[in-house]
User: Fold this.
Amino acid sequence: MTRETSLRAYNDAVASGLVTRRRAELLKIVAEHGPITASEAFNILKARIGPPFNFDSNTSARFTELRGLGVIVEAGTRPCSITGRTAIVWASSGTAPVRAERKPSMADRMESMEARIDALPGELLNIKTRHAAGQLEMWGKP
Assistant:
């Protein structure tokens, strides 16, 4: 049974632009059918899309991404009706997605590293000066 909060969260997630098409498809299935395992959700998705849709890690990874956005949660484990194995069941969190903190770009990381390298000569001179003045122990010797 679909809860109103689950559908509202689904609509908010799609409207936010943070949820891609495949994520949106899986989120809607979780909202409509959850708690549900990844294999059960995949079977529903496969029936909706039709052949030649195949399961791949790309589809499975969407659950981890949706959890990272805060729109689904792990709701426990139970035997999967498709595989018969114990699996995580996913449920809608009932909340809108949270934008993940942006990772620094390669350019940002390079700029930070260059600034640290540029500061090294001054730091080394400071260490040498403090050592000469007897204010610093190096290798256990004053």
